[in-house]
From TrEMBL:
<dbReference type="InterPro" id="IPR050103">
    <property type="entry name" value="Class-III_PLP-dep_AT"/>
</dbReference>
<dbReference type="Pfam" id="PF00202">
    <property type="entry name" value="Aminotran_3"/>
</dbReference>
<dbReference type="GO" id="GO:0030170">
    <property type="term" value="F:pyridoxal phosphate binding"/>
</dbReference>
<dbReference type="InterPro" id="IPR049704">
    <property type="entry name" value="Aminotrans_3_PPA_site"/>
</dbReference>
<dbReference type="InterPro" id="IPR015424">
    <property type="entry name" value="PyrdxlP-dep_Trfase"/>
</dbReference>
<dbReference type="InterPro" id="IPR015421">
    <property type="entry name" value="PyrdxlP-dep_Trfase_major"/>
</dbReference>
<keyword id="KW-0808">Transferase</keyword>
<dbReference type="GO" id="GO:0008483">
    <property type="term" value="F:transaminase activity"/>
</dbReference>
<keyword id="KW-0663">Pyridoxal phosphate</keyword>
<dbReference type="GO" id="GO:0042802">
    <property type="term" value="F:identical protein binding"/>
</dbReference>
<dbReference type="InterPro" id="IPR005814">
    <property type="entry name" value="Aminotrans_3"/>
</dbReference>
<protein>
    <submittedName>
        <fullName>Aspartate aminotransferase family protein</fullName>
    </submittedName>
</protein>
<dbReference type="InterPro" id="IPR015422">
    <property type="entry name" value="PyrdxlP-dep_Trfase_small"/>
</dbReference>
<comment type="similarity">
    <text>Belongs to the class-III pyridoxal-phosphate-dependent aminotransferase family.</text>
</comment>
<keyword id="KW-0032">Aminotransferase</keyword>
Length: 432
């Protein structure tokens, strides 16, 4: 048994067994599927197993833009931990105030108010409540969009497989094809003054789906025309991931509400945020008890936010994400096509959010597992089985970038042998 005097054993089988008995049988099986490695340490771009195996972490669901344990984050969190980790929530507290100010400084114009939460889904819930305070009882999201799995957020997440077991969900939710301006207008027309539109600047979990140029700006204009609240979910795309501070910056968007999360806690603590215009935030402004949660904006988390923003700024991670992505994307494209030929539908991305889409389910999952054998962690895409997703940190050195490309090349070579790539067309299938 594990006691304080007898710390947890670094034994994969024992942990899998504990996981099976106390956490989730499915989670244990998943861990075994990926090699049964016991992750115990992380630093920079690397995660290390109990046996000392190192993996380049290009996954982490987009959390680790600054890598693991960035000194600027750890230093601040450590200092705050030893000073004042949790607030009274009655007195004024400086860390939250400074974190909000620092975050607003990076954000599109007009977003002056901040509500901090812990998870991305919680930020989405808060946005839904803000919409209700503005009289917007109709929610519009995009097909295949991902906004989290709490009940409100799940109502927006456009994926049947996640929604079905939990119905009934929120009423008044509509889904529109991502990228289709006409379809959006048709919908908005039917509910003037009552809608709240929530979109991702690039759909991450849908498999890195980029909107046609001008779509987001047109969506914003339609929201203005039909008096709808415009919410940008930048939980995955924000903070430099796309090679710009925010996805909003690419088309100069000024949403009413913008959501942040993932890397906001510097890869160290769970933090998310809702940024809003004073008009959208008016009800939350008036009554600080209208929407609360015990651990929202703890000084410890707020120290992490300040560290994360400092790391992004001081290390110029936005530019590095843009430049690294510009080099990586064509290379991953070349490698994937060299091995899988016509089984590759498209390799696309923006900054360091890169997706490799196949024409059939199979290669994405097989490559995800094979990449682990080759020393790289990547992501699957929650809303698409066809897309293997890379979200590397923006701190990769040239040698680490080379490791990623070599591992991808080896993984593709091994897995492509199991398929029957048809470079000249025809039917492709796995050799199982
Ligand atoms: N919104 C977007 C765009 C996301 O990508 C995610 C998570 O992947 C979420 C919301 C939900 O965040 P969380 O998993 O922290 O609840």
């Amino acid at each position: 048994m594990t006691t304080l005097a007898n710390p947890p054993a670094a034994d994969g089988e024992e942990v899998a067994d504990l996981c099976r008995r106390h956490l989730s049988k499915g989670r244990a099986t998943l861990g075994e599927l990926f090699g049964g490695h016991l992750e115990t340490d992380s630093r920079g771009a690397w995660v290390t197993s109990a046996t000392g195996r190192r993996f380049l972490n290009c996954g982490g669901y987009g959390v680790l833009l600054m890598g693991a344990r960035h000194p600027a984050v750890v230093r601040r969190v450590e200092a705050q931990l030893h000073r004042h980790p949790v607030a009274t929530r009655l007195f004024l507290e400086p860390q939250g105030a400074h974190a909000a100010e620092a975050l607003v400084r990076t954000a599109p114009a007009g977003l002056e108010r901040v509500h901090f939460a812990c998870s991305g889904a919680e930020a989405v819930e808060a946005a839904i409540k803000i919409a209700r305070t503005r009289g917007k009882d109709q929610l519009i999201a995009a097909h295949e969009g991902y906004h989290g799995k709490t009940m409100g957020a799940l109502s927006l997440t456009g994926k049947e497989v996640f929604q079905k077991p939990f119905r009934p969900l929120l009423p008044g939710v509509h889904h529109t094809p991502y990228g289709d301006v006409e379809a959006l207008e048709e919908l908005l027309k039917t509910m003037p003054g009552r809608a709240c539109l929530i979109l991702e600047p690039v759909q991450g979990e849908a498999g890195v789906v980029l909107p046609p140029p001008g779509y987001l700006r047109a969506a914003q204009e339609l929201c203005r025309a039909y008096d709808a609240l415009f919410v940008l979910d930048e939980i995955q795309t924000g903070l430099g991931r796309l090679g710009s501070w925010w996805g909003a910056d690419v088309e100069g968007l000024e949403p009413d509400v913008l959501l942040s999360g993932k890397g906001l806690g510097g890869g160290v603590l769970p933090v998310s945020a809702v940024l809003a215009t004073p008009r959208a935030f008016a009800a939350f402004d008036m009554d600080p008890y209208l929407h609360t949660s015990t651990f929202s904006g703890t000084p410890l988390a707020m120290a992490a936010v300040q560290g994360a923003l400092a790391a992004i700024e001081e290390d110029d991670l936005v530019t590095r994400a843009r430049d690294l992505g510009a080099g990586l994307l064509p290379e991953l494209n070349r490698i994937a096509r060299a091995h899988f030929g016509t089984l590759v539908r498209e390799v696309r991305g923006q900054g360091l959010l890169i997706g490799v889409e196949f024409t059939e389910p199979g290669p994405a999952g097989d490559l995800l597992i094979e990449l682990v054998h080759q020393g790289v962690v990547a992501n699957h895409s929650l809303n698409s089985h066809l897309v293997l997703r890379f979200t590397p940190p923006a701190i990769l050195t040239p040698a680490e970038t080379q490791h990623l490309c070599q591992a991808f090349d080896s993984a593709c070579r091994v897995q492509a042998a199991r398929y029957n790539p048809t470079r000249e067309g025809g039917t492709a299938h796995a050799q199982r």
